[in-house]
Amino acid sequence: MKVVASYSIKGGVGKTTTAVNLAWLAHRAGISTLLLDLDPQGASSFYLRHDNKGSLQSKQWLTGKTDLQRHVLSTDYEWLDLVAAHDSFRDLDIELAALDSNLLRQLIRSLKKKYQLIVVDCPPTVNHLSAQIFRAAHRILVPVQPTTLSERTFAQLNARLTELGVKDSKLLPFFSMVEARKRLHREVMHAFSAQYPATLQAQIPFSAEIERMGLERAPLGTFGGKRAPARAYEALWRLVLTEARIPVI
Fold first, then answer.
1. Which residues form the AAA domain (predicted)?
2. Sign of torsion, CA 44 46 49 54?
3. Other C-beta atoms lying within 10 Å of the C-beta of residue 1
């Protein structure tokens, strides 16, 4: 089983849309996949047509009073399950601070017999929760908007991993919300790729089609599969499949 986290310190850069679309593409490839929505806003859960907050409360989960599998929800897609967000996830950081630093990894990997891939949609925070996610994930996908501030934020993330003793080789940055006609975007992407050679060469365009996911409440491939954003996520998925060494049966 592989664990891939979709994470960014910045909000609004495509973290959740990446988690949902990659999980759906994994399902399409016949890979048994669980999307774990740890963001209390519950956007991933909403996209997968689960209005209500999940039943899994953070204290139940972290104290071992419940089996995580009991809170897994089915989605409209075979091979793709969901653990929906819960309001109590807002307190995960506080609760994790007093617990084993590897607890989240142990809890996630308790599902290894059922799933080949777990995709984690992470909240845009830097705290004990994100530190545990970094340790639990085999790869950390980081959408980077091609701006100077996003470049700076990624450098801060690199520094944070160093502090935690987590290998920066886990990080897989890629460009999101790209407007190729903008000279600044082209310049930032060129400089960033030179500085960070591990940058995945897949560019997710800035597009109203991606915003439509909220209206359709569905991954891009279900309603816009032939359009540029969906093709861009397919290209990203192929790279992640290789980089994360996701087992395909």
1. 1-163
2. positive
3. 17
